[in-house]
Amino acid sequence: MKHFLDIDQPSATDLAGIIRHARSMKSARLGRARGVRDSAQPLSGRLVALVFEKPSTRTRVSFDTGVRQLGGEVMTLSGAETQLGRGESSADTARVLSRYVDMIVIRTHRERNLLELAEHATVPVINGLTDNTHPCQVMGDVMTFEEHRGPIANRRVAWFGDGNNVCSSFLHAAGQFGFSITLACPEPYRPGEEYVAYARSMGAAVTLATDPQVAAEGADLVVTDAWLSMHDTEDLRNEKRECLGAFQVNDQIMAAATENAIFMHCLPAYRGEEVTSAVLDGPKSVVFDEAENRLHIQKAIMRYCLEV
Ligand code: CP
């Protein structure tokens, strides 16, 4: 049984295969309405549970759409409407759901909830985001970069702002896909040292930058994310605004990157905070391709997990 818990776990060959498969499924659907099923129906007769203990637009809708396009059925559960919200353990939830469904996608708070669920489930588990990582997002981002600019290996990524869960998954991806990454994050908001150490242990160059303008120089891909993560409390908002303000992605930052650089943001975006509207809506932005590719990459991840 294969789970998809983090980008550091599958082999680099498997990750590249998932991206190839996603691109071929995307091409096969060109011109087809979203509600039309794929010609192949590998999830026919399968039921997927989507468990969301945090809000979601893209992850929830793209998994739901993807399961339907592959011929499967889906049920979406919020933490509050299950016993998870009243303290039932992830282990018992895993044992129970495994008796009903064929695969579990979960968005949860702590990584240990995900790991406990995966340890006790007898069906594949996919990480739909934890406080620590967001692997489906970054797989979609790598796919999107390669669609626009070719192989990401040996290219340079510059991350701006909060070193959050998406940033940590970018560090996993740097190790697996072989790109260098510059982290333009103020010291209190750098990603966990274990993610930096992982990328370096895999041979990826990781630079910790303090000057955002210098960090952008030579970047092929500029990425940022909302300053306030879902697990942050509202009282952090002002402190984060103050600390991260100098790391906003704006026209000056994009001008310092390579001429062909593209801009990514996993969305939702807070215009005027981490990124200006001019960049988000500008010619270098590929944010809606990124959002679309969540659908295609997750279909490939589900098929990888179920081996169908
Ligand atoms: N990027 C992302 O995961 O979006 P949602 O929170 O809307 O799922």
> What shape does the CA trace take?
globular
> Helix amount, in percent?
40-55%
Cα gyration radius (Å): 19 Å
List the ligand species.
phosphoric acid mono(formamide)ester
Protein model, in words:
With 308 residues, the chain is α/β, with parallel strands linked by helices. It contains 12 helices and 9 strands. The chain has helices at 12-28, 58-69, 90-100, 111-120, 135-149, 165-177, 193-201, 212-216, 237-244, 251-256, 277-280, 287-306, and strands spanning 47-52, 73-78, 103-107, 125-127, 156-160, 180-184, 206-209, 221-224, 262-265. The strands form 2 sheets. A 5-stranded parallel β-sheet has the order 7-6-5-8-9. Helix 4 (111-120) links the parallel strand 3 and strand 4. Helix 1 (12-28) packs across helix 5, helix 1 (12-28) crosses helix 12 (287-306) and helix 5 crosses helix 12 (287-306). The longest helix is centred in the last third of the chain and has 20 residues, at 287-306. The two termini are 12 Å apart.
